[in-house]
Structure formats: C-alpha cells, structure tokens
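Session log. Operator J.P. requested a structure for one protein chain; no other inputs attached. Running the standard single-chain path with token output.
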Amino acid sequence: MNHKIQALGALLAAVVAVMAAPAQAQDAAAVPTLRPTPGKAACVVVPTTVADKALRAELCVTGGSFSHDVYQLKLDGALVLKGIDDETTKGLRGTRDGKAVTLVCAPQNIPPKASAEDIQRIVPGYPADKTKELVELMSSGFSSVELGRQCKASLDEAPVLTVQVLFE
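Structure written below.
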C-alpha cells in the first residue's frame, strides 16, 4: 500500500511540474502566414475552441499602396474589428456577444546592420533569399525596416489566433 501511495505521489508531482512549466513557444512553421500585397486582401482562417465552443477566426490584411495596411478580424464570419496597422500596434478592442475581443499586431523591425540570424530570430520564417538581400541592404547602415507583424487575437482573454504577417 505504501508503494502505491509513493507512486501516486510521484505521478502527482510530475503532473504538477508539467502544468507549472512555462508554455513552449509555438513553432514558427505552425503559425499561419499572410503576405499582403497592395490593394488585395490576404486572409487566413484559424479554427479554434473557446470555452468548449468551436469558433472560426479569420484575419484579413489588405496591403496599402503608399498608405496604411488595413486589418480585419472576423469571428464566425462576422466582422468584429477593423483598423489600420498603426492602430493594431496599440491594439484594437471591441466586443462580441458581450465578450471582449482584442487584436494586437506587434511590428517586427530589423535594425541597421542586422545579420541573417538576427532577421530569422525577429521574423521567423522570413524567406532565405529575401533575408540575404536584406542583409546586404542593411549593411550600409540603412534605417530600420519593418519586415512583418505578429498578430494575436483573443476573446475574453482566451487566444483565438496567432498569425505571422510578412512584408516582402
């Protein structure tokens, strides 16, 4: 009986350790990627579950032609949030069925004289050929460049999507 209690205690300790461990970063390859172009919407749909309810989250980005990009978040086909890139940096906020909805798209800026490793660390999944071109351009001390945005949306603080937006 004592061995069973010890085994159960060890199992419980292992479960607690796993639950207390920090969440692992999501693999960059697993994060959907959008590549907006001027005047055209690029969209990605992410099926998810919030509070045991299936939900279809969709992010669309329309590239600006010498103007701001426009971001739209839809939940189950209904437009919930819409704003320009600068607004998403601070975070767009709204409600759906009385629940708080947020969309934040953090800029991914590459500093002057960045290395290929720096670029891949800041913007995982950025194309290798474009990275090489950018390293050559940035070697001259050119000012920083925004290569992408990491967008995250939540419903009542529960994550509903993470999307990598790349500007190529």
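Operator note: The two ends are 64 Å apart (CA to CA).
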